[in-house]
UniProtKB/TrEMBL annotation:
TM stretches of this protein: 103-126
InterPro entries: AB_hydrolase_fold, NDRG
Source organism of this protein record: Glycine soja
UniProt keyword annotations, A-Z: Membrane, Transmembrane, Transmembrane helix
Pfam families registered for this protein in UniProt: Ndr
Family (UniProt): Belongs to the NDRG family.
PANTHER family attached to this UniProt entry: N-MYC DOWNSTREAM REGULATED
Protein name from the UniProt record: Protein NDL1 isoform A
Length: 336
């Protein structure tokens, strides 16, 4: 089955653990970049801010064909998955990705994931190293849930089970995704990106979200395998993200020769939506290590919050794997 979405073509692919939706944008002859969203989200609610940013879109679509993978039952207009179907584990979801790659005849791919999606893609990269060129992870997870997260997820699971996508559940999810600056308060209205996300959450079917939540809440700790992960890894995290410490921990477990951390100030977990411009220049330098580049007409964009002078000089030093990436921080003004 195929549908057209804003120039992309949707494919419904039957895999060993259910049907998965993949929306493809761009020239299939170009290298592949696959994306995987966070809990209760799909490409529209998790990545549209990044891909609607002209400079980022030019960088990504100039170099890649984009394959947006949705967790089972999270695509636009998805029907409820039968409650009797077995709930896939996190490892099942990682194995599902290899079936997607084989369906399209893809070799090694670039991967971009957010929080739960970042965990799935990291697990995929550990299991299928030869199929991953690099990882771009936003507010990633690598440890098993802490007692606090486990309990919080159980509360959300009970809300989903008894009340569906109710207002309280959506508030819990929005706190997971966004900083308090954009969520608003009594005096300040919530931002348009939060309003749009709230509406898109209304479309999710309770059983589909619950299945993904259960898979993530039972995830194993993959910390010990991170040192053996030799593909280059770029990690973004907002300093207001509830998973900020998790991202710092994951960075400490990765091989420092092949990894870098970018902390985005005044931002929550979904940097892709809240401050996509903060991702632009770090991604540019990351891709330069692969011989990729951004079209020159956008090279001096005044809209980017970073400039080369903000970046550590060591970032520009060529090494065997390309460019040496150093931990850097971005400071992005909230003023419009």
């Amino acid at each position: 089955m195929e549908k057209i979405y804003l120039g992309g073509k949707e494919h419904h692919i039957r895999t060993g653990c259910g049907i998965v939706s993949v929306i493809v944008y761009g020239d299939p002859d170009k290298p592949a970049l696959i994306t995987y969203p966070d809990l209760a989200l799909n490409y529209m609610s998790c990545f549209q801010g990044l891909f609607f940013c002209p400079e980022a879109a030019s960088l990504l679509l100039h170099n890649f064909c984009i394959y947006h993978i949705s967790p089972p039952g999270h695509e636009l207009g998805a029907a409820a998955i039968c409650a009797e179907d077995p709930v896939p584990s996190a490892e099942d979801l990682a194995d599902q990705i290899i079936e997607v790659l084989n369906y399209f005849g893809l070799g090694a791919v670039m991967c971009m994931g957010v929080t739960a999606g970042a965990y799935i893609l990291t697990l995929f990269a550990m299991k299928y190293r030869e199929r991953v060129l690099g990882l771009i992870l936003v507010s990633p997870l690598c440890k098993a849930p802490s007692w606090t997260e486990w309990f919080y997820n159980k509360v959300m699971a009970n809300l989903i089970y008894f009340y569906g996508m109710c207002g309280l559940l959506k508030e819990c999810l929005l706190q997971r995704y966004f900083s308090k600056e954009v969520r608003g308060n009594v005096e300040v209205a919530e931002s348009e990106i939060v309003q749009a996300c709230r509406k898109l959450l209304d479309e999710r079917k309770r059983t589909n979200v619950l299945r993904f939540l259960e898979a993530i809440n039972q995830r194993p700790d993959i910390s010990d395998g991170l040192k053996r992960l030799k593909c280059r890894t770029l990690i973004f995290v907002g300093d207001s993200s509830p998973f900020h410490s998790e991202a710092l921990y994951m960075t400490s477990k990765l091989d420092r020769r092949y990894s870098a951390l970018v902390e985005v100030q005044a931002c929550g977990s979904m940097v892709t939506e809240e401050q996509p411009h903060a991702m632009l220049i770090p991604m540019e330098y990351f891709f330069m290590g692969y011989g990729l580049y951004r079209p020159t007409q956008f090279s001096d964009s005044p809209r980017s919050p970073l400039s080369p002078s903000c970046i550590s000089p060591e970032l520009l030093s060529p090494e065997s794997m390309g460019l040496k990436l150093k931990p850097i921080k971005t400071r992005v003004s909230l003023q419009v």
